[in-house]
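Deliverable D5.2: sample structural annotation.
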Amino acid sequence: MTATELPPSLIRTLPGSSYTDPRIFALEQQHIFENMWFCAVRAADLDKPGRFRTVQVGRESVLVTRARDNTVKAYLNICRHRGAKLCTDEDGEVKRAFQCPYHAWTYGLDGRLIAAPNLTSMPDVDRAAFGLIPVRVREWLGYAWVCLADEPPSFEDDVTAAATERLGDPGAIDRYQADELAVGRIRYEVRANWKLIIENFMECYHCATIHPELTEVLPEFANGYAAQYYVGHGAEFAGGAEGFTVDGSAGVDRIPTLAAEQDRRYYAITVKPQVFINLVPDHVIVHRMYPLAADRTVVECDWLFLKDVVAAGRDLSRSVELFHRVNVQDFEACERCQPAMDSRAYRDGGVLVPSEHHIGAFHEWVTRRLRG
């Protein structure tokens, strides 16, 4: 049987080079991450003016901060003078301004050039024109999303529509009050291509094999079909499960604004290109991927609970432990695949069984994006 002769039950994946070739990764940076809305920062991490985070978006370092008017701003993290990186730390706080460590050009929180050595002797320099290059920002679900494109795509079409398409109700995700929840975070360094991580999240053919704790709570995941790809259908908790916890014990206080049909169910949403949203009755789990190389991806996973629950010191460990185990299991699986992407056995790619066929649509999407 040649590479092109597959039985009807199987369809082919992307070729192995798609997961290892730095040239392909560079095209993905340009045509995907630098041209789409990218979930950059939890807005609550910028809790006062001067707080900042720097994030890698495609080939660019982006500085995200809270300005004095309390709005979230984003800029290319590059000094306009000689191109030095303005902020070298991943996060921090400045009192009034950002100062380049090379020649001390200084910028206000609004991005405007406010000082530089001998600037007064150069009255022809327009301080606004030589300010930081702004990046567009939108806020949704308590996160700051940035877009580097000169003409950003519709935020509603590219981002919020994913939740509506998945849940079948434009207002369903708002009932989880994600922007009002308190956050706990685990950061994972994954030695695998970002597409392997997305493909893994999109299917449950592997769930019975590597996720025993998850399938105990969500038994329909054990049959290999990803319930998140049936519009409006959430995977129902097992009859004996009291909550979405590692041992099925009761969780914490239910989010009070949820509809009755959202109780005792798990929903998963993929927002391309780099966000997974997981919804359960008492908390929300958000994964943000930062692809750094063809074989290296940082994943920040936030567990979001009611602020009153966090303030009361309730035990959240069993809730966090469930998806932390799932994450570790998934990322180990992706890392097991990554070295084989360079094998001659995977030169033409692998295959997808029927319960994975929807991953083919993701592959087609990637291919279209890279064509520009």
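Annotation notes: The chain has eight helices and 18 strands. Residues 317-337 form the longest helix (21 residues).
The annotation will be released with the project's public dataset once the embargo ends.
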